[in-house]
Specification:
71% helix, 15 helices, 5-stranded mixed sheet, alpha+beta, 3-stranded antiparallel sheet, Heat Shock Protein 90, 463 residues
Length: 463
Amino acid sequence: MIGDSLLISYSYNNIGSTLLEKKEFQEALEYFEISLDIKLRNSFTGVAATYNNMGLSYQEMDDYPKSRDFYKASYDYCHQNKDDYGIVTSAINLGVINHLMNNSAKAEKYFLEAYNIAFKNGYKKLIVEATEFAHDFFYDMGRYEQAYDMLKQYVIYSDSIQNDDVIKEIARLEAEFEYNQKQISDSIMYHQQKIHDEALHEEELKRKEQLIWILAVTFAFIVFIAFALFKAYQLRRKNRENQLKQQALEIEKNLLRSQMNPHFIFNAMNSIQSFIAENDSYSALRYLSKFAKLIRLILENSMHQNIQLQDELQSLELYMELEKVRFNNKFDFKINIDDKIESDIIEVPPMLIQPFVENAIIHGVMPLEKEGLIEINMRKIDGENLILCEVTDNGIGREASAALKKSHGKKHKSVGMQVSRQRLESLNKQTQKEMSYQVEDIVCDGKVCGTKVSIIIPFISEF
């Protein structure tokens, strides 16, 4: 009976969490209340988590006093049970809600308590969470020195978590390599024994009847010829597959080079150097943190055939933020995603959109005398597993850009655009799907006032 009650309490809590994610807050609270009642009556674990869920529900409903009360209940419960991990989580939530309620003294108290306990226990992920919210709080309060200190801790522990993940991955790969080596060794021994047994059997047949031997030799010769022809066919087919794979790898490497081209990295370093020269260490650290995160995302995404759309959008946003700072806010950008697109579920080929955005910045809006604007609009095509992505700018247009390059004697052709075309062709061959893009001028009052690139991208869903 107790086991059943425990499962029921967790089921109600999980249903409430699902409703909370769907922003059905009132219904979520009803399930959380039932779960909490069962846990309190039976002294089950998970009470603090349910309190926090209820606090988050009221926070999302902008009922901050009730939200604070439930976060405080979780905080007190964890103190009573000497649960340091739960204390840190609850203290962060209390810091956030007091910040929203403009209770700066209490917000600071809870943020610093969360950081100190997490630091003492070595809770790296909670240190990252605590320093991130504490940085935002101090920055909003105009206390930039404390905000800078928290940002430094955030960067240090974020990288530490990343390093831990890399070490675990290396250990996994080493174990997998040793296992594969053993499988190969066992397979070789098995086939050697099999060949030996077949040879003995053949000798035994030879000692029998000469006629049977002649027929066996003849049959073996025919089989050998057929096998040789079959292996030749397999070899030709495998060579063709290897050629296609090599082409795909070369295109992926070229795409990675185009996204991490030396000009972009050199200019980013110049921007950081400029901040340092101006003694603006805070801006330099923020820019460096975003730059490091973008490089890490590009490297991680390049290792996968498909990635979540939200990861692709995150790398795009980071790239445009860095370029915006580098060009002294010469342009602004917007990313608009249709409500029907679930960016955390669907997956798309990585690094398809960035070369078109780079082209819009360099050749579209940068030559403008006024402020430029780049928009990325995505919508799902009804009845198809396809996304229409439109990259628009209010730049000078293709004809004016070509004339400008000619007047400056530039013959450079965009490597990113060329690689994108090759990659689309390669993906079409591999997936048997039609991925394409179209470039057209935007005309206002009879004059070109920008460029629009329409890209058809197929996607797959995790569910």
